[in-house]
Amino acid sequence: MSNVNIHHFPRGDILVVEDNKSDLKFLSGILSKAGYTVRPASDGQLALRSVQAKLPAMVLLDIAMPGLDGYEICRRLKDSEDTRDIPVVFISVKTSPIDKVKAFGAGGVDYISKPFEPEEVLARVATHLSLWKAQKETEERNLQLLQEIAERRKAEQRLQHLNLVLRAIRNVNQVIARETDRSWLLKGICRSLTEARGYYNAWIALLDESGKLREYAESGLGDDFLPMKERLERGELTRCARRALEQSIPIMTENPPVDCSDCPLSGNYKGGGALTTRLQHGAKCYGIISLSIPAELLSDDEEVILCREAADDIAFALDSLELEERRKKAVGELGESEERYRALVGAGADMGEAIVLLQNTDKVEAAHLFANQEWVRMTGYTPEELREISYFDLIHPCDRDAVAERNRRRLRGEEVPGLWEISIIAKDGSEVSVENIGALLTYQGRPAVVGYIRDITERKKAEERIKASLEEKEVLLKEIHHRVKNNLQVISSLLKLQSGYIEDERYAEMFKESQERVKSMALVHEKLYQSEDLARIDFAGYIESVVEELRRSYRSERAGIGIKTEVENIRLGVDYAIPCGLIINELVSNSLKHAFPQGEGGEVRIAMRQVGEDEVELEVSDNGIGLPESVGVRNAESLGLRLVSMLAEDQLVGEMELDRSEGTKFRIRFRVRE
Q1: Is 468 exposed, middle or buried (0-12, 13-18, 19+ CB in 10 A)?
Q2: CA-CA-CA-CA dihedral for 339, 344, 348, 350, to nearest 10
Q3: How confident is the model at residue 542, as a pLDDT?
Q4: What is the C-alpha separation between 137 and 129, in angstroms, rounded?
Q5: Closest CA to 90 of 46, 58, 45, 60
Q6: How far apart are CA 284 and CA 278, in angstroms?
Q7: Residues of the chain above pLDDT 90, percent
Q8: Is-contact 6 35, C-beta < 8 A?
Q9: Most buried of 105, 172, 499, 614, CB within 10 angstroms?
Q10: pLDDT tens, 5-37?
Q11: What is the distance between the alpha carbons of residues 430 and 394, in angstroms, rounded to a whole number?
């Protein structure tokens, strides 16, 4: 009997199909003794029914049998999606090469000739079961890896969009701080929201008390907005607009052509959805704003919160402009009459602001001639106490000198800023942030200053909360890049660990190539985590890191192969950095493995340069033996070269050239879109 150690073989359920009873008994005996579960079948029909009842781990199949021969049984198994992966080993007394070729052509993985040698049968069964098991495990791991990569890519896209939205809202706040004209303010806000690529299109409609259009602005729609404009001018609001005016939270429209069929813009959302919300500050509603975004982000809580914050900022800006207009009108109507001054000062309380009339006296500089009830409330002093106090005494020491100097310059008739923010100290010692506007006038024949003062303490606190929120989101983005990098490194380590158990050099090389690809993607996230700019990385530093990994992996310096980089100061986002990194990894690895025969040295060169306002050229070359003319890039058998072609032309939407005149040179040119 055999001396083979049967305990080293993997166990499994084996179907033995043999019409010769003695051979069937012999095979069943040695396999059962080795620990396998044996299912015998004496003809083809029995074998097929046995497979349908329960899938075996392997089939030992005799060729010459009555009825269905072994070739036909194997072909039927291979034609079925459920059974095509089961390894089939032919057994036969036929030993000619033609019979063996026919067996392999039918789908067999091996051929055992009769009479049987127990050691050979057990060894071949164990080998093919091991290979089958390894293949299944590899397929499962590859599928899991692809799923994880897809999930991480989806997360990266979401983060990239949120980063763009944050940038858009920051730009909106800059427009609010800069513009004092309502029309330009609305246009600038819409343009900022779309140019930052946070939203596909944006429009704002200001409505009067009857619900009709008073003023509008849009970006990304052009003439397509005209039907909506005409409808709003008639006071005919769409369903989503009516709902937005009725509630404080944004209205989500996932499928505008279906969910808001009465909207003239329902076909302008590029397959995305819409967020619509009202512009309200305090008790006043100014109108609505509508933003078009990817449909999958509509239900995202952060997206909805950012939309609401942007709407609140816009409404606050509109309220400030309206207040500014009222103040200017009030200042213009000031006259010499004391009664008119008093009426004006008292009216300020209705607008939620303090109004004071200041004039130098013999005893006090900037004395309070008049002060309305809002200023009394804000400072905590009575009107009588205020008459004895200089306005400057109420100013915080940090602002006092600057405010006093501005007031003196204004009284001299010099031009000074009309609006500034300062802090005052109330009677109880509390600090109040205020916004102050001053205007020069003549009162009782002498220069005086009327001041309009608004409590902005809550606004300051809100600004601090917004600032803290943005800082928290930046920390969150850094943490996510860090975690993605760590997860990719874990995948790389798992690939390296698994490759140590693979004896077949081809499979081991495939695992090594996959490991290098994962490393190149992990480096992008590592650089983003370390960068101040969370959207783009310094590509020169990134390439140096990729090259260093390849040097260590392929021991290029020991082999006499140099790697030279010539990279300009270029910063790329994730959508461009990962494809470029994978291309460099594939082409440099290919050069190190194939361009220089054993013992020959040479040089691999990587160059990247800006060739236009928004175009980049990547060049990877070597001075080795060159790529054979028979090898193309788009139809190459190598996964690496096909991957380069897909990344360059499909993902980067670029153009690729191959130069074989001196070694091998790949040149890829693509446009970088902000």
Answers
A1: exposed
A2: 80
A3: 78
A4: 12
A5: 60
A6: 10
A7: 14
A8: yes
A9: 172
A10: 333 334 578 999 998 888 889 999 999 998 899
A11: 11
pLDDT in tens, 240-294: 888 889 888 888 888 888 888 788 887 777 778 888 999 998 889 999 998 888 7
d(CA 230, CA 228): 5
Most confidently modeled of 88-92, 404-408, 442-446? Answer: 88-92
- Counting Cβ atoms within 10 Å, is residue 190 exposed (0-12), middle (13-18) or buried (19+)? buried
Q: How far is CA 346 from the centre of its chain?
A: 54
Q: Which residue has tokens 């074998």?
A: 47
> Is there a contact between 168 and 176 (Cβ–Cβ < 8 Å)?
no
Q: What is the 3-state secondary structure (H, E, C) of 290-317?
A: EEEECHHHCCCHHHHHHHHHHHHHHHHH
Q: Which residue carries 């130098």 as its tokens?
A: 360
Residue reference for tokens 């106490």: 385
Secondary structure E strands in 426-532: 431-443, 446-455
Structure tokens belonging to residue 387: 């008459």
Distant-in-sequence, close-in-space partners of 423: CB < 8 Å, separation ≥ 6: 395, 396, 398, 399, 431, 432, 433, 434
Question: What are the pLDDT digits (tens) for 622-645?
Answer: 998 888 877 777 666 677 788 888
* CA distances to 224, 329, 562, 592 from 555, in Å: 61, 79, 10, 9
DSSP assigned state of 11: P
For the chain, domains (ranges, CATH) are 6-137 (3.40.50.2300), 179-327 (3.30.450.40), 337-455 (3.30.450.20), 535-671 (3.30.565.10)
